[in-house]
């Protein structure tokens, strides 16, 4: 299924399991895991999957389409599928390790 706004298919999205692998690794002896309250290091790096890089390279900004969507939202006529939104939130929660 293709997203009507971004025109990206759901199949183009790949899950990054690196975070899952990192969580599964045991901390090295004598090194405490970083607390969630500490700030991220300046050496942090984001690495996109090939699918994301391909999507970015193919993407085009359509100012007219953005204006149409903004107008529809302002008028209250932008169609929302509450079930699909809820399913998407549930999928995100499952990916993040929720139940």
What is the topology?
Layout (H helix, E strand, L loop, with lengths): L17 H7 L25 H9 L4 H13 L6 H14 L4
List low-confidence stretches. none
Structural class: mainly alpha
Helix content: 40-55%
Total DSSP helices? 4
Overall pLDDT metric: 75
Tell me the span between the first and last alpha carbons: 25 Å
What does this structure look like?
- There is one protein chain.
- This protein is mainly alpha-helical.
- It has a domain at 48-99.
- The chain has helices spanning 18-24, 50-58, 63-75, 82-95.
- The longest helix is centred in the last third of the chain and has 14 residues, at 82-95.
- The protein is flat, with a radius of gyration of 19 Å.
- The two termini are 25 Å apart.
- The mean pLDDT is 75.
Features:
mainly alpha; 0% strand; 99 residues
Quick synopsis:
Helix content is 43%, strand content 0%.
